[in-house]
UniProtKB/TrEMBL annotation:
PANTHER family: CONSERVED PROTEIN. This is Maleylpyruvate isomerase family mycothiol-dependent enzyme. Residues 10-138 form the Mycothiol-dependent maleylpyruvate isomerase metal-binding domain. One of its GO terms (cellular component) is plasma membrane. InterPro entries: DinB/YfiT-like, Maleyloyr_isom, MDMPI_C-term_domain, MDMPI_metal-binding. Residues 150-249 form the MDMPI C-terminal domain. GO terms for molecular function: metal ion binding. It comes from the Bacteria.
Length: 259
C-alpha cells in the first residue's frame, strides 16, 4: 500500500490529469472501455463518485445516500465542458479535503464486507478508481497513459485484494468452476520488479507477489498488465506475451470484471 497522504493527493492529481486530457474535446466521444458511456458521462460518474465517497467519510459511520447518481447517466449524453470540467475538479478537491480533515483512522461505513472500516479504504479505492477512469478517457482519445509504477502496482494489488473478498460472493458457480489442481496465473511486469501469482488451487481465491511456474503466464509492461487486469484492453490487443493455458486465462478474465 501507499501512504494515506499519497492517496489523498493522487485523487486530486489524477483528476487534474484527466481534466487536462478533456480540455477542448467533444464530450460525446464514446468510451469503448465503458460501453454505453461517452466522455461526459465518464466525467459525471467520476465526479459523483467523489461526492458520494466524501459523504461516506464525513458520515461518522453512517451509510451515505444512494450511489444512483454515479451509475444512472442517461441524462448526461451532451455535456457542456465549460460547466463539467470545473464541477469535476471541485469534487476531487472537496473529496481530498474531506479525507485529510477526518484522517485515516476514524471508523466509517464501507461497501465491502470485512477489512478496514476507515477513510483509508475510500482514499485507496478512489485514487485507483480515478487512475483507471483516466485510462478510459485516454483510450477513448488515443492519448498516452502511463501512471507512476508504484501507483500502478498498488492498483493491481488492490484489485486482487478486492477479488479475495468478492470472489466467494459473486457469480459463485462460475468462479468455483475455475478452481482445481494447477489453476494458477502469473503476471510479470517486464519494466519493473512487480510480479503476481493468482492461486485457485485451494478453496479460496489467493494471490501473492512471487515468481513461480504457473498454468499460464502473462508478461509485459506494467501499464499493459494493469489495463488487461482491469479489462480495459483485450489480451489480444495488449503489448503482452502469454505462455501456457490461454483458455484458462480467458475464462478467468471473463469472470473477473472490475469497475
Amino acid at each position: 500500500m501507499l501512504d494515506y497522504a499519497r492517496y489523498c493527493g493522487e485523487i486530486v492529481e489524477q483528476t487534474e490529469l484527466l481534466v487536462d486530457s478533456l480540455a477542448g474535446q467533444d464530450m460525446t466521444t464514446p468510451v469503448p472501455s465503458c460501453p454505453g458511456w461517452n466522455l461526459g458521462q465518464l466525467a459525471r460518474h467520476i465526479g459523483y463518485g467523489h461526492r458520494w465517497a466524501s459523504e461516506a467519510v464525513r458520515g461518522e459511520g453512517a451509510m451515505p445516500r444512494t450511489d444512483r447518481a454515479m451509475r444512472e447517466l442517461a441524462d448526461y449524453v451532451d455535456e457542456d465542458p465549460d460547466a463539467l470540467i470545473p464541477w469535476l475538479r471541485e469534487g476531487a478537491r472537496e473529496f481530498g479535503a474531506a479525507l485529510r480533515e477526518v484522517g485515516p483512522n476514524m471508523r466509517v461505513w464501507t461497501p465491502i464486507p470485512g477489512g478496514k472500516k476507515t477513510p483509508e479504504f475510500f482514499a485507496r479505492r478512489f485514487a485507483h478508481e480515478t487512475v483507471v477512469h483516466r485510462a478510459d478517457a485516454a483510450l477513448a482519445l488515443g492519448a498516452d497513459f502511463e501512471p507512476a509504477h508504484d501507483l500502478a502496482v498498488d492498483c493491481v494489488d488492490e484489485w486482487l485484494d478486492l477479488a479475495v473478498v468478492t470472489w466467494p460472493r459473486l457469480d459463485v458457480e462460475r468462479h468455483r468452476a475455475l478452481h482445481g489442481p494447477a489453476r494458477t496465473l502469473h503476471f510479470h511486469a517486464t519494466d519493473t520488479s512487480a510480479e503476481w501469482v493468482v492461486d485457485l488451487t485451494g478453496e479460496d481465491f489467493a494471490w501473492r507477489h512471487a515468481h513461480e511456474k504457473c498454468a499460464v503466464a502473462v508478461r509485459g509492461p506494467l501499464t499493459e498488465l494493469l489495463l488487461v487486469l482491469y479489462r480495459r484492453r483485450a489480451v489480444e490487443a495488449a503489448d503482452v506475451e502469454v505462455f501456457g493455458d490461454t483458455g484458462f486465462l480467458a475464462s478467468w478474465l471473463d469472470v473477473s470484471p472490475f469497475g
